[in-house]
Design the sequence.
């Protein structure tokens, strides 16, 4: 077995429950490599919701919380407020984050709280058997849309930029090195960092979205159909826009604002008589 | 380079066969513990140690290490 994975995974739970060729293992390796490079193993806490993608941190041999459907961000905000020293990583899927947990995403982005959200977008509800999710592209035949989908998909990264997240990146599983660097930057960044990873699901989305169940074919397809965006560049039409899409260091973080408010209260009201 | 493919973790998805830029891996007759055909690093002298197969293996089955040989 791989030496790096061997040090960070719970070996008695292996092999993982993922299907052969699933993209979640690639994200697992990228996360482990990022944590190993930053040497932050004891300062990381992972929170996840429900779904295939939320099983990624359950194999890590560190602090992990597996919570209810869609509420991973709500639990993570509570954990961050209780223990501001911990770096909190949140793993959600496209159904978990955009459909049932959409309201929690809105409020976490609005508060700009110091979390790292890794949204694994496999374009479909994989665990329950291939139903249509909010991120399914146009004209895809799934179990619940047998005539082909006819509504526009939600673009998670662009939504997070509009809601007010301060570090937003999008990568596919065919870019493992860039994904690792983005996770490192997201952990270091103060504020909500949202990383969307477009992943392959050879069992369900291979059938309905990509047209082939071969994971190697899907990886090559993702690599050919993506263009890396840099600031000031024009985006090619019809391709997946990858890269660091938004980076803003100027906005204040939620816990800093809260501490400022508490000190304001202490100086004006509680210690007001003594200060003069 | 010393390349090992662990037969207890490999699920036989075939990503490493297509992704390797030097085509080190060959589909072998050997079967892993799930009963699928397993890749074998037959052309390991071509390997330049980019580590892409390690990163893209979803189950962490592949390990690539530098091989230090005694020169004398």
Sequence:
């Amino acid at each position: 077995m791989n030496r790096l994975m061997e040090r960070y995974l719970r070996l008695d739970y292996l092999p993982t429950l993922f299907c052969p060729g699933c993209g979640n293992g690639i994200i697992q390796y990228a996360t482990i490599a990022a944590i190993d490079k930053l040497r932050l193993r004891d300062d990381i806490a992972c929170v996840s919701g429900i779904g295939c993608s939320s099983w990624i941190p359950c194999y890590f041999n560190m602090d992990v919380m597996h919570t209810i459907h869609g509420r991973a961000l709500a639990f993570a905000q509570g954990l961050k407020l209780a223990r501001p020293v911990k770096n909190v990583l949140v793993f959600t899927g496209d159904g978990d984050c955009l459909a049932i947990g959409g309201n929690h995403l809105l409020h976490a982005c609005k508060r700009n709280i110091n979390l790292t959200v890794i949204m694994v977008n496999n374009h479909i509800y994989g665990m329950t058997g291939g139903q249509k999710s909010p991120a399914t592209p146009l004209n895809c035949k799934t179990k619940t849309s047998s005539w082909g989908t006819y509504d526009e998909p939600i673009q998670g990264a662009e939504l997070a930029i509009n809601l007010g997240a301060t570090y937003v990146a999008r990568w596919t599983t065919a870019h493992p090195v860039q994904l690792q660097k983005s996770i490192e930057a997201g952990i270091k960044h103060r504020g909500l960092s949202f990383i969307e990873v477009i992943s392959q699901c050879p069992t369900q989305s291979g059938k309905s979205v990509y047209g082939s169940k071969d994971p190697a074919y899907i990886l090559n397809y993702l690599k050919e159909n993506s263009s890396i965006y840099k600031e000031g560049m024009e985006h090619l039409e019809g391709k997946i826009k990858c890269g660091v899409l938004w980076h803003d260091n100027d906005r204040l973080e939620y816990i800093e604002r809260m501490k400022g408010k508490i000190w304001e209260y202490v100086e004006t009201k509680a210690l007001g008589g003594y200060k003069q | 380079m010393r390349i090992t493919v662990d037969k207890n973790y490999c699920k036989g998805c075939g990503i490493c066969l297509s992704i390797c830029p030097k085509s080190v891996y060959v589909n072998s007759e050997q079967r892993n513990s799930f009963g699928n055909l397993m890749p074998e690093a037959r052309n390991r002298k071509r390997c330049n140690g980019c580590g892409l197969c390690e990163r893209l293996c979803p189950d962490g089955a592949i390990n690539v290490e530098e091989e230090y040989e005694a020169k004398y």
Summary: The first strand of chain B starts at residue 2 and ends at 5. Helices of chain B lie at 15-19, 52-56.
